[in-house]
């Protein structure tokens, strides 16, 4: 009996030791990533806040000095020259960041200052682009470099890239929930890198707080009217989301198709970007200045007032494709917000459902369609619009995700699991 008691005691001691070792290992891991995510949030938050301040300044300057658009071709030559001087001619943009997470490439540290200056220049002189592309690239570049300085292994450096992306995205938009999840979700559709959850969450929160303290106001929009959901209104939003899925595919096709045309017919990067700059100037004379820059004012008018020019969504797609595919720098996500909001508002006015609500739902559906990120889409709807229209946003995100197929903004985004079956497919997104 005594022998059996001793055996049981030893077994229990070994079991408790294993539990303690496991617990302490997890605590050490948590402390490690807490410290690292705090550093990343502060560094990337500071850098992104400076970027946001510059973007606000150049946007205000451009809107007050319309003549500056005439120098857009010259600004394009400056951007091309800058990338050549720094020997960064094979720029893959956000695709390089995604490829780094896939362990296929290495994002260089010089990407951060290059994309900063190039995006600010593009917006100052009137290029049609967003800012989140710069945020993702800056955050990924800084995160990767911090991983090097901290001598992390390759797996941890990939986590650092996602951590930096989350921090930069949240600092610019003030949406920490969506930012934390987006960096994990956008890389591989159907699979999320949950090992990055703690670093991304804390880096996002810290970067957002840092940016707010520096006066960077989080993005938010007020929906005028959210009707109670009925069978009729639900069907109307389903039809809207179906249409937005088609719009998201069209946006991707126009973007990548324009790039193919540029590379086929205008091989010289200087001629290409000068041509694009002149084309943007000509189109601005014809259709006005609403399509220059990010277009936040137009988005706000569509969501908060239900007002829209009927052709605004297609014009924004054209302006953005001409700008970005020629070599100007920026992002595609805010333009996708613009496209979704203006199309949704137009749709709402046409069918008699709240144009403000339809603009918001359109934003979510198109964003989900071009990024293939349904969870992020739902979270960003909460942070941008509040919780009153939740049923409509859920419909918009889910239908937009399903019907957009395997198209997407990013060539290096991988569709790991099928959208239609519980099936492993592992394919790149279509152009």
What features would you describe in this structure?
- By secondary structure, this protein is mainly alpha-helical.
- It has helices at 2-64, 72-85, 94-101, 111-124, 132-149, 154-173, 176-185, 197-213, 231-265, 269-287, 296-305, 312-326, 333-351, 355-371, 374-385, 390-403, and strands at 188-189, 414-417, 424-428.
- The chain is 71% helix and 3% strand.
- Helix 1 (2-64) crosses helix 5, helix 11 packs parallel to helix 13 (333-351) and helix 13 (333-351) packs antiparallel against helix 14 (355-371).
- The model has no long low-confidence stretch (mean pLDDT 90).
- 52% of the residues are buried.
- Strands 1-2-3 form a 3-stranded mixed beta sheet, with no helix packed on it.
- It has 16 helices and 3 strands.
**Mean pLDDT, all residues:** 90
Backbone shape: globular
What is the CA-based Rg, rounded?
A: 23 Å
The fourth-level CATH homologous superfamily of the largest domain is Clc chloride channel
CATH architecture of the largest domain: Orthogonal Bundle
- Helical region count? 16
What would CATH call the class of the largest domain?
A: Mainly Alpha
Low-confidence stretches: none
Helix-strand sequence? HHHHHHHEHHHHHHHHHEE
**Structural class from helices and strands?**
mainly alpha
Task: Give a count of the beta strands, DSSP E runs of length 2 or more.
Answer: 3
Helix proportion range? over 70%
Distance between the termini: 73 Å
- Strand portion, in percent? under 5%
How would you classify the quaternary structure? single chain
